[in-house]
Amino acid sequence: MTSAARSSAFADVSQRLQTVGFKKRAGLLFTRDIADDVLGWLGLNRASRHTPAGCYEINPVVGIRHQGVERIIAELRKEKFHPYMPPTVSRPLGYLMPDPRYRSWTVSETNSGQSINSLIEAIEDHAAPFIESHATLAGVCELLDDKMGFDHQLVYRRPVAWLLAGDIPRALRLVATAEEALGGRSDAAALEFRSFAAEFQRYAGVSHTG
User: Fold this and answer.
1) Which terminal residue of the chain, N or C, has fewer Cβ atoms less than 10 Å from its own Cβ?
2) In the listed set 74, 105, 135, which residue is the last one of a domain according to the structure?
């Protein structure tokens, strides 16, 4: 598949997603306003390493971003708040479909239209309903407890989500458990989490007494 054909195919995907309510972001990222302070999130991972010449795979990742959770995390980690990265929870689209498993859509010059139609249909039938049915803080907390995402991100997002939901004891237990699991580690990731834990405990104390 030529570079021009790939560009045309992704332009088609982008246009189709925008017609069903997604907003184009940087690269192959898209978001959709779902509820107050909640974004539906879609990332299209592209790979060609293990595909026949002239083909590439699209593996969509579906997520939900709760802006309230992400603002607190950015504050406690002393980071600049990003308007749409990362998702608070995420999972490959194939695992949200019947017979959950890894799925990708192979695109080539000969099947581009058919494959893109199938991809958009799967997003409309499975990604959109999943996002809409969990677009609340309670829904996000449930998905976080189901470990929907990456461990190095969940360890920050689970306690913050439960704190925001009002379950302060549970939030504090999550942080304490994660901190204890670090043991004697002194690497950068461990030091970063300990700093977050200290900030979190102060923030929870202010929230609890305020």
Assistant:
1) C
2) 135
